[in-house]
Amino acid sequence: MTRPASSAATSPSEPSLEGAAQAAPLLLDRLAHRAHTNPDDLLLQEVGPAVGDGPRTVTAAELWSAARARSAVFAALGITPGEPVATLLGTSIEGVVTWLGLALLGAHEVPVGPDLDGDILVQSLRGVAPRVLLVEPDRQSVIPRLAADLPGLETVLVPGPVPREAHPLIRRLPDPPAVLPQQDELPGPGAVACGVLTSGTTGPPKCLLVPWGQLRQMFAEALVVEPSPPGESVFVFTPLNHLIARGLVYRALLHDHGRAVLRRRFSRSDWWADVRAHGCTEAILPAASAHWLLAARPSDDDTRNPLRRVIITPLIPQAREFEARFDVPVSISFGSTECGIPIASRTLPPDLRSCGRAVAGVALQIVTPGTDIAVPDGEVGELLVRSEPDKVSVGRLGGALPRRADGWIATGDLLRRDGGGWYFFEGRLHDVIRRRGENISPTPIEDAAIRDPDVLLAVAVPVPSEVGEDDIKLFVQPRPGRQIGLDRLAGRLEGDLPRFMVPRYLESRVDLPMTPTGKIRRAQLRSEAAVGPSTLDRGVSRAGGH
Asked: Which of 110, 265, 277, 326 sits at 20 to 30 Å (Cα–Cα) from 421?
């Protein structure tokens, strides 16, 4: 599970990344190497509003030293390898240092969304049951509630000042020892890089353990690190409790003299200004963020930006418009915390509904759900994925994941493949709506809705029907400055969809409930009543009833 640290720091023959993404070093190996060979390289840079009084930039040598120092502090506090340590930190240098420090110790950092509060925060941490929690200074107000609801919580660490009237569990993060212990070994590809709480879009969060080899599979192999001029600048603006942010920090490290530009959250008004000011060459955009950028008023400066690649996930129907308007190539990917990224494409597919092709080194099957019977091209089935053990989640906090003995992972995702090898996502097994004897994926309903010029986002969920099984409710969010005529939209859907797929209920929301990475919280919408004050109920007879 580990490897000598000295080999990463002193080897003069590190494999070239050009044309050899499969040979990419692991993140900590690469950091140790850059700290040794180019110690003064700027590695991390914080932009936008700051929290706390820490540094806004760090070099390769400073980050390596800070991670080792943080590891020593955690060890002195009695944190042991394999122990979960929860963190409530923003996308910041502090967040990266804490992650790498715990990883060097072999502890399992479990980051929690920095903006979570109340019941959602308690629910997220309850399954982790941490003894130690690290929070930013401005989040100390959540501690009384957590102390009451998490009986195993013993210590809350704050990297900054602690007021005299602070809760008894809160203490300032100690200073590191004057002399740091020698770092003899670095984690290998099967060692845990961090825990990741699932987003909670479909139910209570679960903590999956992600190994370093999976991080490499996702962000150096599936999303190939292409040959590029030195000095790549990767824009990181999603929260560190999601793998996207950590993977982008890794990608920045892989480039010669590459750096990561860290911003605590997506800003529609500042995004392009940040990209231009800091020379950002790569970013991953959640679909909602890409929609918001396109919805802004066109400018003569739209094409004047340094971006060389943007990955939009999931892909939006207006992807070619995005490429043309901002003069930047768009890539796509499809994956999960459990099985990495098995499907991707460096270029846009002929059919923009596709999520890409199979990634090298990963085996895929599409089968009839609950069986091993493969479906032919063009038919929808459940995606099975098989990869090397250190390239997928190695377990769940507190136990193993249910896995088949033959190594195949049943993803719960419904896909189809066309004759050209392109894959198409058709929904989730547990999102399937059962209506009038038909199994309906919400995806084609949502796709039809967002083709309307007034609709920015759409999500279809099942609601109980008085005649048994489900009815369909469609939530829509308008584009900025637009209003959605629900009757008009329903009429449009009647022309675009089979009768049994046309929603009975439609409701427009100024903002749909989202996770920090732009996923719609389906579970929250499913839990709401079918009819609210602003819901259009089209009646059983008009919406595909008997």
From this structure: 326
